């Protein structure tokens, strides 16, 4: 950074301030690229020096898991990422909204406090071992998160030139514990603490952001596109991280549910592997795309959590029922990240293996859940009767958003797509029940290559 600043002072005086700044951005971008490439090289060298049998032991050892703590949900207060605005400034003296991404849980990086190790589930059968190996190979790594965070930092700095009191938050699978190496990045631009009209005000704000991306930031942001959905977004690709991003305005429920899901992800060690394999399965069978009338990843996560809550011997509780103060939907944003810190692991008497749980998940939605009359509710930890509102009346799948009560599966509004989804659940249940081999419903080698 100092090199880049010094370089600006060497530019000829005939350059305008804007040209100088553009040159600075390009130079800074080059430094970021070198840094990321160097990080990748170090990782490759460390991998090459590890014997193959040790790599195998990473998958088979019951004592291997570095990203989770076994006493409370890992949301450290002390050592955080340092990024612009992490200390209250004059820009936020009136309505300062602390940066929630500063509470990213500890991963395998020296910039975080060391986590207390916990164990992955012990795999005693082939199917469970396949689930674990897929999870270990595809889960989001520290370097993946660092790349997204780097983009968020740079974009926040630029957006604050237009909206000085705004903050940009990384939300969704990048932080909730269910991210994969190929997960997109979700960003929430908080303009003010009050609600924003998504049809008018949010679209206007995003149109300005899109223009910023298309002009001033075009050197490292490509394909910015404004999507006029119920919650409008700007989709774009960051050339440095090669990550696709979705950016919304003031959809603060996404910040709240990020930390709710974060807690579910870490209070029971079978949750994250099971969610990851279901997401990969749904993508492989083309039923994981809300823009094409199928299920969003968020809906799939809620479906897995709901299934684990409704077993005869539950593996998960309702966190909102058990800890209402920690997940109060009216809680101020700057307190949301603190809520999960004191919640201990959930000790279930259910000892089912990952393989049995995966088969049971498909069976539940293929044969037991009443799609016509029931709604999936993680908040209630049970299936509840469908509401009679317009939002629910003509939808084939109803999944309740835990905080605002909307239908996260509203994209599934065509019977043909619904029938395809149901059929995939039925076929996968029958195949896994008989074969007990994940390759029969999800080719592992290809999936791991795609990450």
From TrEMBL:
Q: Which reaction does it catalyse?
A: RNA(n) + ATP = RNA(n)-3'-adenine ribonucleotide + diphosphate
Q: Membrane spanning segments where?
A: none
Would the keyword Translocase be found if you checked this record's keyword annotation? no
Task: List the keywords (alphabetical).
Answer: ATP-binding, Cytoplasm, Magnesium, Manganese, Metal-binding, mRNA processing, Nucleotide-binding, Transferase
Q: Where in the cell is it found?
A: Cytoplasm
Gene Ontology, cellular component aspect: cytoplasm
**Name of the protein in its database record:** polynucleotide adenylyltransferase
Domain (Poly(A) RNA polymerase mitochondrial-like central palm) spans 127-265
- Residue span(s) of domain PAP-associated: 353-407
Q: Which GO terms describe its biological process?
A: mRNA processing; regulation of gene expression; RNA 3'-end processing
**One Pfam family recorded for the sequence:** MTPAP-like_central
As recorded in UniProt, its EC number(s) are 2.7.7.19
């Amino acid at each position: 950074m100092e090199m880049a600043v010094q370089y600006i002072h060497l530019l000829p005086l005939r350059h305008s301030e804007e040209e100088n700044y553009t040159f600075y951005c390009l130079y800074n971008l080059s430094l970021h690229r070198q840094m990321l490439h160097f990080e990748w090289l170090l990782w490759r060298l460390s991998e090459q020096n590890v014997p193959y049998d040790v790599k195998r032991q990473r998958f088979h050892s019951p004592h291997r898991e570095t990203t989770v703590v076994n006493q409370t949900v890992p949301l450290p207060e002390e050592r955080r990422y340092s990024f612009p605005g992490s200390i209250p400034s004059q820009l936020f003296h009136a309505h300062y909204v602390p940066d929630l991404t500063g509470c990213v849980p500890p991963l395998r990086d020296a910039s975080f406090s060391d986590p207390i190790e916990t164990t992955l589930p012990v795999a005693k059968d082939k199917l469970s071992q396949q689930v674990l190996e897929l999870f270990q190979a595809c889960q989001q790594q520290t370097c993946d998160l660092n790349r997204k965070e780097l983009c968020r930092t740079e974009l926040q700095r630029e957006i604050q030139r237009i909206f000085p009191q705004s903050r940009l938050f990384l939300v969704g699978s990048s932080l909730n514990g269910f991210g994969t190496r190929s997960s997109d990045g979700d960003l929430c631009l908080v303009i003010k603490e009050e609600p924003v009209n998504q049809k008018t005000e949010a679209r206007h704000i995003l149109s300005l952001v899109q223009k910023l991306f298309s002009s001033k930031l075009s050197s490292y942001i490509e394909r910015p596109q404004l999507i006029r959905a119920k919650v409008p977004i700007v989709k774009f690709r960051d050339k440095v991280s090669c990550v696709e991003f979705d950016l919304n305005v003031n959809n603060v429920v996404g910040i709240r549910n990020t930390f709710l899901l974060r807690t579910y992800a870490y209070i029971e060690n079978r949750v994250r592997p099971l969610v990851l394999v279901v997401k990969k399965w749904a993508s492989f069978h083309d039923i994981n795309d809300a823009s094409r009338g199928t299920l969003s990843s968020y809906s799939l996560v809620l479906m897995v959590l709901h299934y684990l809550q409704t077993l005869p011997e539950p593996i998960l509780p309702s966190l909102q029922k058990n800890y209402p103060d920690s997940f109060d939907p009216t809680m101020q944003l700057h307190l949301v990240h603190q809520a999960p810190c004191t919640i201990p692991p959930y000790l279930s008497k259910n000892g089912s293996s990952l393989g049995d749980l995966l088969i049971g998940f498909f069976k539940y939605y293929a044969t037991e859940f009443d799609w016509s009359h029931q709604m999936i509710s993680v908040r209630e930890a049970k299936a509840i009767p469908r509401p009679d509102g317009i939002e629910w009346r003509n939808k084939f799948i109803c999944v309740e958003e835990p905080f605002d009560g909307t239908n996260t599966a509203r994209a599934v509004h065509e019977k043909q797509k619904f029938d395809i989804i149901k059929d995939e659940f039925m076929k996968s249940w029958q195949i896994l029940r008989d074969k007990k081999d994940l390759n029969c419903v999800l080719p592992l080698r290809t999936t791991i290559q795609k990450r």
